[in-house]
Amino acid sequence: MDQDIRQQRILDGVELVDTIGMPEDGRMCIMSLVAFMAGEGHTDRPHCASPLIACFAIPVNDNMPHDVRQRLKPFAPRIMGTNDGCDRQRTALLRRVLAEEIMPRVGEMTGRSAGRPARLRRLWTRMRRAELQSRVRRMLRHTEEGCAPGRELDLAAAAGRLVTLCARDAAGQREAEWYWNAAIGLLDQLSSIGGEARPAHPVQVERLARLEEVLQARNRLRAGLAAPRLPFWSGIASLSRTHERET
């Protein structure tokens, strides 16, 4: 089987979850999946990955609905090797997308939601969103002239949380989908920076084989649990027919 096809099939079988997960269960978050495929220990901060990408991807992964989260799986092999010294360019991209695309939309959303009645949980979400919105705006201003080491990571983490809070507080499915697509699109762009110049960081073959075994075992277990069980009376009838043949 072609290696790329095999890798895609195995990735399709992985379940992305909102915690660091466990490779032995075939359930991981996007960043622990990156670490596993790269041959690193069980962590959501793999050395092979851009710290800025990790800071953005973790809150996005953790706050996405389960079905939307599965759309992150193709990024796992692309994030490998992004710890390549290009985070300054990624910070510039993050700032531009936030300032030109995401923050204007957040401002419009804030105006629309001001008059909507809110239950306690939604009210907390809006308060948290407003706090993050102000924080992101402050950090964008501070990074106009460059930022101290670590501040760009704070910006990435706050951006990931803000986008997901906006999606969760959206007035409808279309608006929520806009924010989820924005998060996925931004992750796509961040992962692409430096891609042409950096050396390939191949998926560890033994890790891929191990994950394939885990998924096959899980599928066998599920197939066994899903096997149809005969009603009690059908077993009685079968025993009765056996007795008649013997007599």
Given the structure, what is the number of helices? Answer: 11
Rg computed from alpha carbons, rounded to a whole number of angstroms:
24 Å
Q: Uncertain spans, ≥5 residues at pLDDT below 50?
A: 232-247
The major pleated sheet works out as:
3 strands, mixed
As a percent range, the share of strand residues is: under 5%
Count all strands and give the number: 3
Span between N and C termini? 55 Å
Entry summary:
The protein is mainly α and 247 residues long. The protein contains eleven helices and three strands; from the N terminus they run αβββαααααααααα.
What does this structure look like?
The chain is mainly alpha-helical. It is built from eleven helices and three strands, in the order H-E-E-E-H-H-H-H-H-H-H-H-H-H. It has helices at residues 3-13, 30-37, 51-63, 66-69, 75-79, 87-113, 120-142, 151-168, 173-192, 205-226, 232-246; strands at residues 15-16, 21-22, 27-28. It has a three-stranded mixed sheet with strand order 1-3-2. Strand 2 and strand 3 (27-28) form a beta hairpin. The longest helix is centred in the middle third of the chain and has 27 residues, at 87-113. The model is unreliable at 232-247 (pLDDT under 50).
Question: What labels describe this entry?
Answer:
3-stranded mixed sheet, 11 helices, single chain, mainly alpha, globular, disordered C terminus, 3 strands, 67% helix, 247 residues
